[in-house]
Amino acid sequence: MGIADDAVEVRAQGWRTLASLHAAIDTELERALQGAVELSVVEYTVLDALGRQHGWHMRMQQLAGATALSSSATTRLVNRLEERMLLTRVLCADDRRGIYTELTVAGHALHDRARPVHDAALERALASARLAPELAGLVDAIAG
Q: Residue 129: CB partners within 8 Å, gap ≥ 6?
């Protein structure tokens, strides 16, 4: 194996480590959020992104970026959350094609209940991952 091959393998191993850590965190978050507040991780991500707007709203494409979903997947997710009366869509006053999304009162309340569940689950997942030698360095790098 040459130097270039070694570099490719190092990057591939780094990616596998990152994917493994992500899967461990995602699994813990999903279990905790579903069990405590009946939200999926991606649903929580939407509520969290909107909840951090402090009374403002987000365009659908901004929300898609925040959730790492396609526009169509974001629309389907927003539809489901809107049916649950957790958020609402508002037409942009100066651009009729623009659609904003914002949390409802119920959405804010659920986000407030879900945030400590999410944060505790994230802390548990990181603490557990830190015990795995292959993940410990990455956890230390991202979580301090």
A: 21, 24, 25, 135, 136, 138, 139
Nearest in space to 42 (alpha carbons), one of 10, 66, 18? 66
Q: How confident is the model at residue 91 (pLDDT cuts 50, 70, 90)?
A: confident
**Residue 13 backbone dihedrals phi, psi, to 5 degrees:** -65, -40
Residue 138 CB partners (closer than 8 Å, separation 6+)? 17, 18, 21, 129
* Rounded Cα–Cα distance for residues 100 and 55 (Å): 12
Angle at alpha carbon of residue 36, lines to 51 and 127, rounded to 5°: 85
> Which ranges constitute the DSSP H helices of the chain?
3-37, 41-51, 60-67, 71-83, 105-130, 133-143
pLDDT band for 98, please (50, 70, 90 cuts): confident
Task: Determine the Cα–Cα distance for residues 26 and 122; give it in Å rounded to an integer.
Answer: 9
Residues contacting 108, CB < 8 A, separation 6+: 51
What is the model's pTM? 0.87
CA 8/CA 11 separation, integer angstroms = 5
